[in-house]
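note to self — DONT lose this again. spent like an hour looking for the file last time. sequence + predicted structure for the chain T wanted, 145 res
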Amino acid sequence: MSIGIFTDKTAKPMVGELLKSLGAKRELWNGLVKFVSDNYRVQGEFKYYGKKYGWALCFTKSGRALITLYPGRKGFTAQVVIGSKIDNKVKGLNLGRNVKLVYKSAHMLHDGRWLFIKVKTKKDIKDIQQLLVLKAKPTIVKNMH
């Protein structure tokens, strides 16, 4: 089973397909995309990550992945890699149950903890925003809710 639902390399998802796939989670997706775009002055780029992951919206800053969003069926998954330099700071955040469980179950690899967060609530979005602010200093912090 793949993380995203758009797994055909030859069929990059169209905006209408993407929004339809998100269902009721569209508002959460749009809010997170706006937060990243506004605070980091970056635009997402659709990239194909193979059959296991599918097409995803990737945001990079200074040549490094900031966050990757995988559209799913009636929702989406956010991937944030937490490097060893900020790992201890993450432990001090007041994270919700969902993100905390993902964090605790992710093993530290050579390039960090790969967090694949199935976004369910506004609290998940707030937690992801906190992780991003730790990971990379935003230009300005706005729309954080």
